[in-house]
Amino acid sequence: MRHGSERREARNETGKRGPAGRAALLSTAALIALAASPAWAQEEAGEGAQVPVAEELPLKPLVVTASPLASPLDELAAPVDIVTRDDILASSATTLGALLGDLPGVSQSSFAAGASRPVIRGLDNTRVRVQENGIGAGDVSAVSEDHGVPIDPFVAERVEVVRGPATLRYGSEAIGGVVNVINNRIPKAIPKGGFEAEAGAAYDSVSHGRQAFGKMQAATGDVVWHGDAFARKSENYAIPGPVDRQSETWAETSGIAGGASVMLGNGDVDGYAGGAITYYDSKYGIPAPGNPANPVHIDMHQTKVQLASELEFNDGPFSALGLTGGYSDYSHGEVDATGATGSRFDNEEWEGRAELLHRAVGPFTGAFGIQARKRDMEAAGEGGELLAPTTTEAIAAFLFEEMPLAGERLKLQLGGRIEQVEVSGRALDASIPLAPTDYAVDRSFTPASVSAGLVFAPVEKWVFGFTAQHVERAPDALELFSKGPHEATETFEIGDPTLGKESALSFEVNARREGEDYSFEAAVFHTSFDDFIYKRLTGEMCDDSYDTCTPHGAGTELDQVLFTQADATFRGFETKGSVTLARWGEARAGITGQFDMVRAELDAGGNVPRIPPMRAGAGVFYGDEQVSARLGFLHAFAQDDLAPGETETGSYTDLRGEVRYRVPMRLSGGHALELALVGENLLDHDIRHHVSFKKANVLQPGRNVRFVVTARF
Hints:
Layout: H1 4-12, H2 19-34, E1 80-83, H3 85-90, H4 96-100, E2 106-108, E3 118-120, E4 128-132, E5 135-136, E6 158-162, E7 177-182, E8 195-204, E9 209-220, E10 223-234, E11 251-265, E12 269-285, E13 297-313, E14 318-335, E15 341-361, E16 364-381, H5 382-386, E17 390-404, E18 410-429, E19 437-445, E20 448-456, E21 462-473, H6 477-481, E22 483-486, E23 491-494, E24 502-513, E25 518-542, E26 558-584, E27 587-602, E28 615-623, E29 627-636, E30 652-663, E31 672-680, E32 704-712
Parallel strand pairs: 4-7, 23-26
Antiparallel strand pairs: 1-6, 2-3, 4-5, 6-7, 8-9, 8-32, 9-10, 10-11, 11-12, 12-13, 13-14, 14-15, 15-16, 16-17, 17-18, 18-19, 18-20, 20-21, 21-24, 22-23, 24-25, 25-26, 26-27, 27-28, 28-29, 29-30, 30-31, 31-32
């Protein structure tokens, strides 16, 4: 949460916008509505303002996901990765998985150009929570790898990836980590000068991809209005080798959002209250279809409403209150070449949370809160064979506390959560294999989780952390009630309605050094799972119904998988760093490096399926006031630690480069124009991701040159 003084200063800036600012507001609104090419306008930033916005020093981002206290990175026990707005715009990623997939410890499912979820330390789907401003995505992307996340990277101001104790604030489905997309669709403060906007466009050579976006915030008194829109369109992307294009990798995505907040402040209470409504539309192909003559594409729609309020109290035992809520109406159809919809998934979901921050009680400062969620998911057509209608209801209480142990050098962070989860649906009764039926099931679970972390800062800029946590997760409806064909992954999935809670005992040690000239981060982790739930290949084959499954039937098309529980151990190591080797005035140059690995084994013997390979990377960088550049590579080693039924995935090297140029502009009011040229997979290597179900048939994009222009004013 922002401090009240920051909001008051921001409010005091309003009223300084003159005729030029009002003209800019009208022209920018028109540009955004038309999703036009890059544009910029003038706005009056106060008396004597002559410095472009881009030259102002950026504020250090507060990590709102990892701590309710909005702590900076050097005060957290667990590592946090932050992807900035500039990095988002430079990336050709159309999905969150592709955007985050090169971070240490993070990979991507890479199923389709429009569908790729983040995989954190080998954990995915129902163990990685994807959310927007603290509220879940409200989708069905965890049901299948071909289902996209209806949050486009274009909308994000930044993205935070969090592991460790703070994930307990968000639910048992965050046992592997949290990916939080943070944007300002619900404004939290009046913009400087009362108005700000950004617009831009990009082109990707590998897919002839075109993108345009625009957003704005404008204040009228104590009310701040927000609007944004974006559109993407790409064709089948080019790949290395004799085949020119990877079929069915086209995508078309667009979205529009509007929001508003009222700034509050009466001396005793400061804050805001607001809401936003978003519409998202996406269509994308499913590569390597089972029937190439009749390919399938996804047609996805979501309408989402979010409400939020943060109140800061200047006196009393409580320092702040945060309220957030959201409602999502999501649906997608899986449409064939004739226009017929074979499967349809509908998801109606609401979620609300309240978090109350308290001032020091003895040595403790922290927050406690409640969270509630209800989800109704329904599948029809062929999808109805996989999953009958299900309902999930959950309510939880959580706690996060912090206390000093040795002044400011040593801190203890504690977290806890208890949930009540109810899951209902219909499960498969296969007691008569040639005449299976289904029956109604209601399951109830009470996951309880605790965590502890130590933060030790012995000298300036160096921080050491240690975390330990015991986390429990209730099985998801998909894991309990799956009972049919899943054409996209070419599997026949069978849930187990008797599954129990999954639990994990995790330990992590990390070290971090923050600074311009020398930064470093490393983490070693070990997680022991009891009753780990995973998809186990049975060795049987099926067609579209259970009675075709071998050995009783004669199925040949789909691999049968059974949701199974077994003890497992995950362990790994991650590191990254940068060193400035030379400076010339405002310019500096240096080197970067990174490494990550994860091993995941079943305690009874064998490997956990679809675990990312070991990776290592290095690069060089240069930057001054106007120009910045970097060149580096990420090498993925061959993955030969295989589960039964898996095949080895070869190594690859992804060479990337980037040059940015900030156009110097000294006009009244100040605005900024930035040009970027980005190269991806410059060696044109064959890239296949081991975690992808489609790795044998689908190559990742070949050499790509991306041009980006961004205007901020």
